[in-house]
Here is the input.
Amino acid sequence: MSGIIGKKVGMTSIFSADGRNVACTLIEAGPCVVTQVKNVETDGYSAVQLGFGERKEKNTPKPLIGHFKKAGTTPKHKVVEFRDFRVEFEGQVNLGATVKSEEVFVEGDFVDAIGTSKGKGFQGVVKRHGFGGVGGQTHGQHNRQRHPGSIGACSWPSRVFKGMRMAGRTGGDRVKVINLRVLKIYPEKNLLLVSGSVPGPKNSYVILEK
Here is the structure.
């Protein structure tokens, strides 16, 4: 597995060769800096740690400042570890090396996008779980169109089962969307155009895996 860190710019749409209007997402992918290289001998597994996004040194913990100085780079805002980096990148993942999007992906590749979904706050069961609501006002129903309905039995089990779908905080979860096609690469601007939607708001960090 190989990948890169990016930032979601926003959504747009393009026309495909057969005339279809395809919704797509523009991502600022890289360039990322290799901040640590792990191997089986010292760490028990092989992995590459990448850093992306500038961060002020005064807002960076001192241990991280030393960590980034060891790699010969400035403090980074987002650090992600990629296990089992592809074999063809063995010579390019030295400490302090720069990884660009065009070195990892080519047009037509399928990628998985990982991000944090938008937080919705406290929501009811209709929005949170897709409940249909009570429907028509019959059998004495009044002002209960979006209520959950019955949540348990009476004398037995005299409690509500764990895992019952109820209202609560929605969003803000780690979400992975798989098999998004890379439609276009703009290497001069470090931009990727992928099909479909990517979790998270604009300017949020996104992890792209191949």
